[in-house]
Amino acid sequence: PEAVGHLTVMARDVHPNVRTAVSKALNSIDGLEATAVLAGLMRDPDDLVARVALNRMARRKDGDRQLAIYIGEPMAPLGDLAIALLSDSKSPSALRLMVDALRRGEQRYRRALREGLQNFGRPGLEAVLAGALADERLQVDAEVILGDAGAAALPLCAAAIASAVDAPPLFVVRAVARMGLDEALPTLDRADKSGRLAVRLEVLRGLGKLKAEAVSSRVLTALASPDPAIRAEAATAAGNAGVNAAIPQLLAALSTHAIPAERVVESLADLGDPSAEETMLKTFWSRDSGMQARLAVLHACKRMHTPACVDLVARAGSHPNADLRSVALRLIAVR
């Protein structure tokens, strides 16, 4: 106690080097008084003093809680360091405190918290998934954490979907779709069988991140779906995945209006097939085409950059419609 009393006085010394030395000395002293002095030094205006104090606090038995308190304060300039120290500890209390920080909506260090929870490995992924299943406030963060973890999180997500096959959690489906892994296809197929529209749309978005040969048949089937939302999302998936076999169906959809023209045009531009050029140009000049379809054709032509497309963008630069003219001129100006 006497030593802590002297160190408490020295912790207010005007020289940062002295305060840094106090932080290091307190590391070897147990007790609430020593913790309180070190907690004060964590908030020292000198960056080095505060960093040393944070590192020393992380080594204490009650350090996790003090770091969590620090993160939750309005002014916590070294919050990223505090989160990294919690993550490095790999302790159950640190894991719980970090999940709680995300749950209460901590925005300043959201990215650091997500990365820190990933660093926990499987225990961190399990805690995030369990927390999000119990509390929807965690679901957006869980989607990102699980999705970015990729193959490490896939078994957990697959189990969550299999246990609720009739109503798979949407954030889990989004996480699997985010992974972009071919081995996730069976899990996406299982989710798709739920028949729920929101789930099926997320599955199609996931298919768009995979290789064409793996998803071609699924995308072609979805393009013929009686549901217009499924057809539209399938068109986008075809373009994103590079499913060239979908080009005939996409071209036909422009004539039948089975899929919104802008979605079809964007997909054809992604596929970059020159045979689509004539149909796209007809879509632009057709009186039946809406503004969104015409704008989509302009952007697609800019990307395809064929002679006919270059000519269309140039002619649209003098179009009587101000919106089309403005977009065309911007596209001409951008190389």
Q: What does this protein look like?
A:
This protein has 335 residues and is mostly helical. It has helices at 2-10, 16-26, 32-41, 47-58, 63-71, 79-89, 92-103, 110-119, 122-134, 139-149, 154-162, 170-179, 185-192, 197-207, 212-223, 228-241, 247-256, 261-271, 277-285, 291-304, 307-316, 322-333. Helix 11 (154-162) packs antiparallel against helix 12, helix 19 (277-285) runs antiparallel to helix 20 and helix 21 (307-316) crosses helix 22 (322-333).
The profile of the biggest β sheet is:
none
**What percent strand?**
under 5%
The number of distinct helices, counting runs of at least 4 residues, comes to: 22
N- to C-terminal distance: 72 Å
Number of strands: 0
Question: Summed up, what is this model?
Answer:
The protein contains 22 helices and no strands.
List the helices and strands and how they pair.
Blueprint: H1 2-10, H2 16-26, H3 32-41, H4 47-58, H5 63-71, H6 79-89, H7 92-103, H8 110-119, H9 122-134, H10 139-149, H11 154-162, H12 170-179, H13 185-192, H14 197-207, H15 212-223, H16 228-241, H17 247-256, H18 261-271, H19 277-285, H20 291-304, H21 307-316, H22 322-333
Helix pairs in contact: 1-2, 2-3, 2-4, 3-4, 4-5, 4-6, 5-6, 5-7, 6-8, 7-8, 7-9, 8-10, 9-10, 10-12, 11-12, 12-14, 13-14, 14-16, 15-16, 16-18, 17-18, 18-20, 19-20, 20-21, 20-22, 21-22
